[in-house]
Each structure stands twice: as structure tokens, then as C-alpha cells.
Amino acid sequence: MPRHPSEYGNLLRDLIAQHQADCWLVNTGWSGGAYGVGRRMPIKATRALLSAALDGTLAHVEMRIDPHFRFRVPVSVPGVDARILNPRETWSDGAEYDAQAAEARGDVPRQFPEV
């Protein structure tokens, strides 16, 4: 990608607004901790979330605003454990989740383990 990733993010945001498109971000990766500590997202939850997005259900459920990323996040979706929808609740240490979220936002420099 020849431009900074934020330019592509801004372009996507503008196109979504211009065309009034629904856009859903689905975590199909890890929950409950960092790699090696957490677990893969259950395939049943992924399927339920994708089905709800495709059939329009997600457009009509109660939403909350994620405090870290400012996304609108469903509070509940049929067939999905509500804790998965609030990833901080799946971590045994909420402060550790907050630190990882701050790192993902770019608020703190990324820490790499010593080799």
C-alpha cells in the first residue's frame, strides 16, 4: 500500500457515509487474552454474527459504544454469548485488556518480547 493506512481508513469511512452502507467488523480471531492465552473465536458465534449481518438483524438490535474504539457494538445477538460482544469481559484481567486496546489504538509503543 503506497499510502499511510489511515488514508485508506478515511476513504472507507467517507465511502460508507456517502453511500449510507451498513458495514460490520467481525472478530474471527482471539478473545479472552493475547495469542497463546486467549481462545479462538467460536465458529458458531462467527456464523451467527455473519448471518445476523446478512439477514439485517444486526441493524435492529440494541447497541453500545465501545469505550476504546468508539464502534457501535451489539449488546446481544441470538446464538452468541453476550460476553463475546464485550471482549473485556472475556479476559481474566480487565486492566490487561485495556493495555492491549491502548496498544492497538497506537496510544503506547508496541512491546515485543525479548529474544
Write a brief caption for the model:
The chain is of the alpha+beta class and 115 residues long. Helices cover 34% and strands 9% of the residues.
Note down, in words, how this protein is organized:
- There is one protein chain.
- By secondary structure, the protein is an alpha+beta fold.
- It is built from three helices and four strands; from the N terminus they run αββαββα.
- A hairpin with a 6-residue loop joins β3 and β4.
- Strands 1-2 form a two-stranded antiparallel sheet. A two-stranded antiparallel ribbon has the order 3-4.
- The chain is globular and about 45 Å long.
Key traits:
115 residues, alpha+beta, two-stranded antiparallel ribbon, 3 helices, 4 strands, 34% helix
